[in-house]
Amino acid sequence: MIVTRDLRNKRFWRGLAAHGLSALGVLSAALGLIDLFSPDTLGKLDLPEILLVPAIALAYSIRKSWPYPVEKHYSTPDTKVRLVTGDLFDQETSLVIGMADTFDIETPHIIATTSVQGQFLAKVYQNDSSSLRQDLRAALAGKQVIGTVTKQGNTDRYPLGTIATIRHQRTQYFCVAYTSLNERNNASSSMGVLWEAMEQLWDEVRVQSNGDAVSAPIIGLGQSGMSTLLPIQDAIRFLILSFVFASRKRRVCEELRIVVRPGDERRIDLLEVQEFLDSLKTS
Predict the structure, then answer these.
(1) Quick one: what percent of the chain has pLDDT higher than 70?
(2) pLDDT tens figures, 228-255
(3) Torsion over CA of 45, 48, 52 and 53, rounded to 10 degrees?
(4) pLDDT value at 283 more than 60
(5) Do 35 and 104 belong to one domain?
(6) What's the mean pLDDT in 213-225?
(7) How far is residue 150's CA from residue 173's CA, in Å, rounded to a whole number?
(8) What is the pTM of this model?
């Protein structure tokens, strides 16, 4: 965690001051009541006992202002959103895998080996592209092909928002198409397409996950062609918002866990993410 950076964040100090003053106010009111009903009690306190009051207020304010863990539980519906740093494929949950509308998997010339798709092939399928291709083909059976594109790799196009759900070694993978590849295998997408793809993703998770937690990377980074439209901070808010709105319609699952790569954490204002999560709590 980037602790020193967070200590320099104005949001941290504003929160610290606000929570500290609030705690001091409550403690002062409590001491006032004690003095009212037992006037001699406070006069017997020693200096260490007196200093305990601001110490408690400080501890409370630090606890409330500290940005870890970044999470929020919502009671309506009963669900949670968490932001964690680590490896997506170490999470013991169902996983979201972003893909293109052609569901290409070949690395490194079409799909970057460092991308989530590339890691999916390497870590889950041990680079056995034929097995992954077979599982994708089975998951896409019955789904409509809407066209073709002349390019290296897969040529059949599926509608953006198509979900290929794969169960492999007791883990479920939701492969969602939210970018389109052109003749040069360059990816592109748009905010509208991404939002619709997320809506269809949460519909599929709602049906297939049995209510269990699902982990997702930050959607829209890397080769998706969305990084200029959707910087990392906005991409996190976008993902959270789509999940919370879908959950308000009908519960999706018990938890959305957004997994941040260690190298990306320093680019994220975690305090702002927590404030955003707090702002979405329904009254």
Answers:
(1) 77
(2) 778 999 999 999 999 999 999 999 999 9
(3) 50
(4) no
(5) no
(6) 86
(7) 28
(8) 0.80
Give the dihedral sign, CA 31/34/36/42. Answer: negative
Tell me the one-letter amino acid at 21.
L
Residue 162's identity, in one-letter code, is T
Is there a single domain that holds both residue 44 and residue 180?
Answer: no
Name the residue among 149, 153, 243, 226 with its Cα closest to residue 191: 226
The three-class DSSP label of residue 203 is helix
Residues 193 and 259 in one domain: yes
Q: Which of 65, 97, 118 is the last residue of a domain?
A: 65
Domain count, the chain: 2
- State which residues form the domain around 34: 2-65
On whether the CB atoms of residues 31 and 42 are closer than 8 A, the answer is: yes
* C-alpha of 201 from chain center: 14
At position 173, the amino acid (one-letter code) is Y
Q: What CATH number has the domain bearing residue 236?
A: 3.40.220.10
280 CB-near residues (< 8 Å, 6+ apart): 72, 74, 240, 241, 244
Distances (CA, A) of 116 to 69, 218, 266: 24, 10, 19
